[in-house]
TrEMBL record:
Record's protein name: non-specific serine/threonine protein kinase
Keywords noted in UniProt: ATP-binding, Kinase, Nucleotide-binding, Serine/threonine-protein kinase, Transferase
Keyword check for DNA damage: no
Cited InterPro entries: Kinase-like_dom_sf, Prot_kinase_dom, Ser/Thr_kinase_AS
Amino acid composition bias (Basic residues), ranges on this chain: 314-327
Highest taxon, organism lineage: Bacteria
Keyword Kinase among record annotations: yes
Family matches, as Gene3D superfamilies: Phosphorylase Kinase, domain 1 (3.30.200.20), Transferase(Phosphotransferase) domain 1 (1.10.510.10)
Region of interest (Disordered), residue spans: 273-339
Source species: Streptomyces zhihengii
Amino acid sequence: MKVRPWAARGDLRLTAHVVAGRYRLDDLIGRGGAAEVYEALDLRLRRPVAMKVFHPDGEAPTEERCADEGRLLALLRHPGLVTAYDRGLEDGRPYLVMQLVRGTTLSRRIAAAPLTPAEVARTGAALASALAHVHAAGIVHRDVKPSNILLEETGVPYLTDFGISRLRGSDARTAAGVLLGTAAYMAPEQVLGHEAGPAADVYSLGLVLLESLKGELEYGGVPLAAAVARLHRPPVIPAGLPPALTGLLEAMTDPDEHSRPDAHACVRELSAVPGGLPGAPPEAVPGADDGGRTDGTPRRRASGSLRTASPFRWMRRRRAAGGRLRSRQSPPAPPAAPA
């Protein structure tokens, strides 16, 4: 399906303006709470770029936030992530120059029509691969959502907006009890005010894939209600999906962060879904040869040969034993009213 790129009315004081004597701002292509994103032309290299211009009255010190995002992007090199080229300050407004992705956002694509299971598997595998690279660099995104995912005209996805991302173990400069992220996509541990690790990004991606399949938010409503809802009911998985995809979505959105697969495992499972990424050998996926472990220690058979274990073997055992993980194709029945 052909989806028209998003459009917005730009700030006429900025469009056609040349920043730092080098970047000519053209059309506004996106707007968020902290910044606007313009298509621009690098007059020196004669190439189109995207320029993120931060608001001077943002929630955080904008120059510091721009610098943080630029430094994080500079650490990353992956085909599913935009490349940062430059950053600076113009008339008191920080800016970040990045690779331009022509297309639309996943949120607009979902609004046009839900994605098929095969499309979700392909898109999810690419995004999980990008997250695996991000996590391997020690970074947690903390705001994975459809509006932060760009789709090229060919459908290739890019994970963007690292504005509230951070290096694990670094000072996040977040006051206790302050929630960072978007309520509809937060992991339960984020809602409870706990530290968000890589598992929180996996949970958010699970909700994004569910929304792509269903064409609607899993947890809608006002932010507080949307955030709290996941503490009371699990996501509803649509019926009729390939079993591997159903099992993966259940695992990705497990309320226990320690029970979720990591991003490497998600890549492998999504690639195995019918219509997913065909012909990708396990060694082509970063981390696939170590069974999804992040400590670099390969798993071995008793004979000593390397193996790639299915991360859902534990899930099948739990189901066979009558464990707590159950099908989420319908919400749990409410308790009976007292007599």
